[in-house]
Design a protein that fits this description.
The chain is mostly helical. It has a domain at 53-123. It is 50% helix and 12% strand. The protein has five helices and three strands; from the N terminus they run H-E-H-E-H-E-H-H. It has a three-stranded parallel sheet, with helices on one face.
Length: 155
Amino acid sequence: MASTPQTLWELSLKIVGSIAAIGFLILLVILVSLVISQNASLPKVRRKGTPVHLLVVLGSGGHTAEMLAILENNFDYSIYTYRTYVVSSGDDLSAQKAVKFEDTIAQQKDSKAPTENYAIVTIPRARRDDTPTSVHSLRSTLPVTPILSSPTAQL
């Protein structure tokens, strides 16, 4: 059976038309998806005014004083009903300041007993404050330097 130019032309038009129809359907699905996603309301994680758990990270170098000053000035105790203070091991002063801050909150609420709406969590220290960072890192990398600089080093 011999193919005539007219039948080849009709066949190519059918193929192009099918591809165009599929492309149009894909574009339509993308556009509808975009419209739906842009008009969908965001899910609410919590209702306004419901209690919130607050994590406060305390540390040395004035950070504890700064964090507690922020809490003293702009703090709504009715919303932030439970607080967790994180201090590093060996930083007893920050933990004591957090306890004193919580005692102040209890006094402001006219509560006779100290509040139990907080916890102090102690985490291990990454390095001591008196350890200079650059000297410490230089000292820790010196034993490895000859190995890394040798031409036969295998990493």
